[in-house]
Each structure stands twice: as C-alpha cells, then as structure tokens.
Amino acid sequence: MRVIQSMEVRDEAQVGGVRRAVHSFGQRVGFMERELAELDIVVQEIGTNAARYAAGGGWLHFTSPLGAEPGVEIFYCDKGPGIHDIERAVRDGVSTGGSLGAGLGAVRRLMDEFEVYSTVKPPSSARSTTGQISRRTTHGTALLGRKWVAAAKLSPESHAATARRVGAWSRPRPGEVANGDAYFVRRRAGQQLLAVVDGLGHGEGARDASAAALEVLSAWQGEPLDYVFRRAHDKLRHTRGAVMGACVVDARAGKFHYAGVGNVEARVFNAPAPVRPVSANGTLGARLGTLRVWSYDWAEGATVILTSDGLSAKWDASDYPGLLAKSPQMIAGVLARDYSRDSDDATVLVAR
After folding, report:
1. pTM of the model as a whole
2. Nearest CA-CA partner of 266 in 306, 295, 298, 309
3. What is the pLDDT of residues 289-310, one digit of tens each?
C-alpha cells in the first residue's frame, strides 16, 4: 500500500519547500535531470497559482502511481472558488486572473497524464440536490497528474492499466503516523480482488490488525470470498480485530461478488442493474456472524467505490456533476477531500 505525502500551500513562501520535496521524491524513483526540471516547473505552477487564487490555499499530495512501474503521481486539491472554463484554463499561456488556472497548459504538457475536475462555488443560499443545505462543501479544484520514468514509457499499457482503472486514497487520523486503514488490489486470471480493511480504533493496534488482514488477502489465488473472510477471521483472533469489505470483479463472466463484515460501505454505479450489497454485523477476529456473498451482473463502465467509516456516508454522487466520468483516482481524491472525518483514519478505493 503506497504512502501519500501531503504538503499545504497557503502562500508563495511555501512553494519552494513543496517543489524541493517532489524533486527529491523524483530523484529516488529514477528521474533524470531533464525530467526533474519538468517536475519543478509543474509544482511551481500549481503551487504559485494555489497561493494566489485558491482562497485559503490548497494541498499538494505526491506518491507513486498504483502499479509496479516507477513514476510520480501528483494530486492537488483546494476548496477555492473553482474554475469557470476548464478548457480555456488548460490552454498554454492563458491566465484566468481570478482563479486557479494560470499555467495549467504547461502542467498538462509536461506531465504524461493530466486531468482536471472543478466545481464552482454556488451562492451561499444554494441547496444540494436533496434540498438540504449541507455542512460540507463540494466546490473547488482538483488536479491529477502522472509522470513516468523513461523506461516505463516504453510499455505504456503495462504501467497505466492499474493506475487508470483503480484509484486509492488512504490516510491516518490527522496528527497520527500509523494508519489503521488499508486497501488491497490484486488481479489474477481475469478476476480482480478489491478490499478495504479498517482496524478497530486507530493507531498502531489498528494498523497491526489491518496488516494481518492484508496477509490473508495477499495469499488469494481465486478462492471464494466466504473462504477469504473465514481465513481472515482466524488470522485476526490475536489482534484487536477489524472490519472489511471485499469484492471480486470478474469482467469476463460479467459478474460482481461482494461480502462485508462491519461498517465498510460499498456503492456501485452504472451497473446493468441496481447493486445494493449489505455488510454483515460482526468483527473479524472477534465475532463472525452469518456471512453472505452478494452477486450481481457487471459490465464495462461500471464503477465500484469502497470506503471505510472514516469517510462520511453522506456523500451524494449527484452533487458532483461529471465526476463519475473521471479517473478512479480523481474520484477517490475528491471524495476524500470533502468527506474524510478528522476523528478517524480514512480510505477510499475506486475501481472500474
């Protein structure tokens, strides 16, 4: 499971520190001097515009892309006023003069993959699609970019397959280092196993419990989900316990299978028929009740989103016009930005 490094950008004095941190990360993964210089420009452009236009600044997160190939993934997000005309903003040489956007054309050109999602701040009296005034806001801008080392570019499909079809966001409770949440992704023989694990509580004890569950998931060779859950239950008996939601997407057979124990939430969009799986009550390692595996039809274009309870369940996809058409990593990042709880670890896993 990759570690996401996060740095806040509230004023231009902080941009240099962020640039140097991303530069050092790029050196470690194998970028040459020209690629590092391009990364410097990307971070400088994003950071400077965040400080000038994002109304309170934003956060720049960087990590390795999902998958085995080396590279850098940058995700920037803010709760600013948003970009009114994204197509215009990403043209080279265009400055919006009042919102994040200046220099985005250069950023797009220097990254191998680049994506923008932005929603404009509504009037203060505006209500959500449910008719209620929400305590949480969904406006702001998010940028996602990936840059691969030169060797990885020789086989673009191998390194892009996982990164383009799966997105994951996981962070510990603010102020802590140990993350009690975890996620798992494994593809085997045309099937894909996806899981989110939440160790009870937070801190090192929760991390140890989720790590034990990951050991079981790592041994998966195509076994049914009920078998996987019973093995995890036995493995976690000497930990504080965990809850888990897991699914197997079998694209060739056109099937989706889900099982869950505890309060991990699963939502599926754009499936051939409504998908409403329910997790069983219980705790892996302590009490495993009646486990049910839910099976549904699956088709290309469907999207599954698994979340730990560190993400508020009150999010509504209809509050994010066009977001489900974006990449899984963009979806995960935007939901984490708006609905992560400050009192807990938080994880979002998105796949299609």
Report:
1. 0.91
2. 306
3. 899 999 999 999 999 999 999 9
